[in-house]
Specification:
This protein has a two-stranded parallel ribbon with strand order 1-2. The chain is mainly alpha-helical and 147 residues long. The chain contains 5 helices and 2 strands; from the N terminus they run αβαβααα. Helix 2 links the parallel strand 1 and strand 2. Helices cover 50% and strands 7% of the residues.
Length: 147
C-alpha cells in the first residue's frame, strides 16, 4: 500500500515497549495520524508529551523525538482504529473501513479474533454494528459521488 501511494521509504512496524525508544534506535521520525483535532487532539497532545518526556526522564538523556502529525481525509473521520480492531475481534469484515485489500489482509492477520479478549453485550454489539453499517453507507455514497 505504501509503495502504491508513492511512499517507498515509509515502513510500518508494530513494536512492544516505548515507541520513542524504537524510533531513536532506527533513526526515524514519528508520524501520527488523527481523524479530526476535536476528536483526537487532546489524546495526541498527551501522547506527544509522553514521547517528549520519555527520553528525558527514562533516558538515556536525549533530545526529544520529532513527531509529524497529519489529518485524515474527512471521508475517514468516523472510522477509528478501535472500530476496525473490534470488527476483527468479532471476526467481521473490514470492507468499507480499509480501502486497500492488502492492508485489510494484514489487519486480518494482526487482529486475529481467536486472540481477542473483547466482550460486548448483545445490545452493545447491535449498536456497534448499526454504526458500522451507517459508516459503510456514507462511504459508499461518497465513493459514488466522486465518480
Amino acid at each position: 500500500m505504501l509503495l502504491k501511494n508513492g511512499l517507498p521509504q515509509v515502513k510500518v512496524d508494530i513494536v512492544p515497549g516505548y515507541i520513542w525508544r524504537f524510533a531513536k534506535e532506527k533513526g526515524a521520525v514519528m508520524v501520527r495520524g488523527y481523524r479530526t483535532w476535536k476528536k483526537d487532539g487532546p489524546a495526541e497532545i498527551f501522547l506527544n508529551f509522553l514521547n517528549i518526556l520519555g527520553p528525558i526522564v527514562l533516558g538515556p538523556l536525549q533530545s526529544p523525538m520529532k513527531t509529524v502529525f497529519f489529518q485524515a481525509s474527512p471521508a475517514y473521520s468516523k472510522i477509528s482504529s478501535t472500530k476496525v480492531r473490534l470488527l476483527r475481534a468479532f471476526d467481521r469484515e473490514v470492507k468499507g473501513f480499509v480501502d486497500d485489500r492488502e492492508c485489510a489482509e494484514d489487519l486480518a492477520r494482526m487482529y486475529n479474533p481467536k486472540n481477542s479478549s473483547h466482550s460486548m453485550t448483545k445490545e452493545e454489539m447491535k449498536t456497534f454494528l448499526r454504526e458500522v453499517e451507517e459508516i459503510r453507507r456514507q462511504r459508499a455514497m461518497e465513493t459514488e459521488k466522486d465518480k
